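Q: I have 347 residues here and want to know how they pack in 3D. Can you give me a structure?
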Amino acid sequence: MPGSSSPSTGFAGVALAEPAAGLPGLFASPAPHPEALARALSRVPPGDLPILLDRIAFHRIDGLAHRALSLLPAGEAHPWLKFTLKRRHQRQAARALAQGLDLAELLDALDRAAVPVAVLRGLRAAEWIYRDPGARLFENHDLLVRPGDLPAAGPVLRRLGYEECAPRSFRRGGTRVDLHVGGPRTRGSFIPFSVASLFAEALPGLVAGAPALLLRPEDDLVLLSLDLIRRSFGRLLEIADLGHFLAAHGRMICWEAVRRRADSARTLRLVQLALASPAAVGVCAPEALHPGALDPVEGFLLRRALELRPVALSGQILLALARPIVAGEETPAVVSFGRRRDVRSAS
């Protein structure tokens, strides 16, 4: 598989290799590749730098690209490119701070209302995976609550000035909050598990300095993997989330627990395929979750994802291959992934 040859020693079964996605993969890799990055940048004509910036912006890796370029010696990257990415990183950090204040206010209010909540992706990823508020762009806050707590969560949001603009989606100014309740029969959800089962393994902690439940790392990894499949490998940032997660927290992962959680909703094959994609940023998942032999369609879709040319609806295709629909019956994952979310939306 691209990116998996001659891996260097990694951690807890996670290995590092040359990113398979070329220059964008070098920008987004959790491991520094200064020599390879400098060589790749030297081949970009100055007139093509705006095109490169557009590509970086499309994949939402502006902050990661800034961090990668900051490791290069002076003169190894075009000053305009470095300056532009530095400013984008600063703007993302400032926006994350403002969004974090809004999130902390909401989490404190939910805590006072005795509504347990877990924060998914977004600021949680910026804090826990990247440890850098400017590294990851996000547009909304995804909060996981128990279905029975929805009647209490809604009024809390409204008292803080949020308006419900769609079912379980609230907005106040530039801040959007989406409530997720999980469960195999929640249409449009990327969480085919009961919230009770996820919260049972969670620990109390802090996100944005406010109280929230922290899902166990194995569950976070499974949810990130399933969300990547749901988004059909649309942008490199979501693949980078998985790669940086493995690089930062691979030592604490119990791979058998990952298998059990994925198996509980019959999504193990989808998780295995998702975990093959961080080869794009130079991270090879452990052998314990290697997808093994790929059928021709799986292989084609995964190659296109690693080339950053994902096929539209590839997530739905992989779902259909992994979980055939029995005549007259929808499987839980089919219901959960039933509504495609446009690739342009990101959290």
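Q: Anything worth noting?
A: DSSP finds 15 helices and ten strands in the chain. Confidence is low (pLDDT under 50) at residues 1-11, 325-347.
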